[in-house]
Amino acid sequence: MLNTNCKNCGKQFTISDEDIALIEKVSPKIREVQYLFPPPTLCPECRFQRRAAYRNDRNLFERVCDMSGKKMISMYSADAPVKVIRKDLWWGDSWNPMDYGRDFDFKRPFFDQFAELDREVPHPNVIIFNDENSLYTNYNMNNKNCYLCFAGNYLEDSLYCYNGEHSRNCIDCLFVSDSELCYENIHCDNCYNTNYCRFSKNCKDSMFLEDCMDCSNCILCFNLRHKKYCILNKQYTKEEYERLKNQYVIATHEGIEKMKKIFEEESKKYPKRCNRNISTEDCTGDLIIQSRNCQECFIMNKNCEDCRHVFNGFPGLKDAIDATYCGENTSLVYESIASGDNCQTLLFDNIVFNGSSEVLYSHYCANTKNSFGCSGIRNGQYCILNKQYTKEEYEELVPKIIDHMRKTGEWGEFFPIKNSPFGYNISFAQEYAPIREEEGLAHNYRWEKKEEKEYHEATTQLPESIDETSDEITKEIFTCTGCTKNYRITPQELRFYKDKNIALPKYCADCRHITRIHQCNSPHFYNRTCAKCSASIATTYPPNSGAIVYCEKCYLKAIY
To answer: Which run of H or E residues covers position 337?
Structure first.
């Protein structure tokens, strides 16, 4: 075990023996010689921040395709210092990433050379696969009829969702799966016709639930299991419930605000489980499902094993450390963000697609093997800085580059934030590690300027009640109550709100998303004691949060 200070924030952190063992396990071998990565110099939070600065999920811009000259929607702004082309052209045969290959210069740092290469090699405008009628989206696969949905798969007829999976007819949801007709749900699975619910499963026809399971026809309830016809955790008959539920309405803005206030005030009275892990063995973190030996991990799906400091691991992930968004059945991953399925040995990479292996310090590589410092390589092998080598040449040159990176202090470090093509303020990092513009500029981070858009006065006043709303409302322009940006209500939205009897939103989609993010704990972990029995626990609830946090044993005893 090693105690050291983070060279970024100065905070002391611990590198455990298990961390060191996993770093050794993932360190690459060339000709049977292993090239060990040194212990990390940044704390886990700063390492997460550095990776997340290279991902922009939700901000879309209009810019010109650098190949066709036509306008397109892109996750890269017009000012981003990279070339960007339409995704269909990027995956096509009209260009060759090997044309950008160059020799390695041992007189210069690796990161400077890679940044120059990456600025020249075209990037795809968005990352979308097999989507239908879902143009304004990003990081999606197999979506249909979706609008402004991001980082999701198999979504249908949905709007403004983030990390939705196998769901349909959902609006303004965050991390939902196998659900339908849901509104403003957060981390909910297998729910139907639920509104303003969070951390709940197998629920239907309910609203304002927290940590409930297998509940129906419930309102403003917490920590319930297998219940019907409850309001504020009190049991009613069906007839009593039907009579009383009319007092709890979300058809007006006044009603919504009243319900939100009650929900948050009541939530403080109920104990929180130290984590929401399910069927795990030797795991610490939160939202881990049927996995073993995952330490300080956040959102891990089934059958993940031997992982540390991972955010959002997909089923079958193994032997991963300091990784963010890792694909299914992928293994041996270190300091990587957005890796595909069925990959192996992805080290210090950003966006590596399915079927790749032995890829180091690279961006946007697909079905690529044994490559170092490459950008945009598809179906390649034994490439360095996009230049082709023989196996023998590759295995002779890479160790020399590693020795050079050791001397420059780059070996074992992820790409610097200042080299990210995204402004820090539009990156994934800003959601979980927000900073102010002056702080970002002081660190030499890119900072995206606000688009020069002409914002208008609202063309009409937002109706107080959904009952007062006509179909003509879709022709109007509104001003966000939070950020003052303009937004509209689409016909699809209006039908949804009318069917569910919900007042139109007063805030734009971005402000609504940020509000949902703030209802979730950050992926940081704290050592606390159970408020009931004083046992030691690891939790995402900060000590100063005011939350009543129980260990697993005390929590289960309290709710059953």
So the answer is: strand 331-339
The first and second tokens of residue 184, run together, are 């403003």
Stated length of the chain: 560
The burial of 370, by beta-carbon neighbours within 10 Å (0-12 exposed, 13-18 middle, 19 or more buried), is given as buried
The pLDDT value given to residue 452: 60
Choosing from 377, 408, 439, the residue where a domain stops is 408
Is the per-residue pLDDT at 311 higher than 70? yes
For position 454, what pLDDT does the model report? 60
Q: Which domain holds residue 12?
A: 2-52
CA separation for the pair 81, 65 (Å, rounded): 14
Residue 453 has pLDDT above 70, yes or no: no
Is the separation of the CB atoms in 540 and 298 below 8 Å?
yes
Query: What's residue 524's pLDDT?
Result: 86
**Rounded Cα–Cα distance for residues 311 and 317 (Å):** 12
240 within domain boundaries: no
Residue in 123, 127, 139, 61 with CA at minimum distance from that of residue 421 = 123
Tell me: the pLDDT tens digits for 68-102?
A: 999 999 999 999 999 999 999 999 999 999 999 99
0.85 exceeded by pTM: yes
What is the rounded CA–CA span in Å between residue 144 and residue 354? 22
Residue finishing a domain among 52, 67, 92: 52
Instruction: State residue 457's pLDDT score.
Output: 85
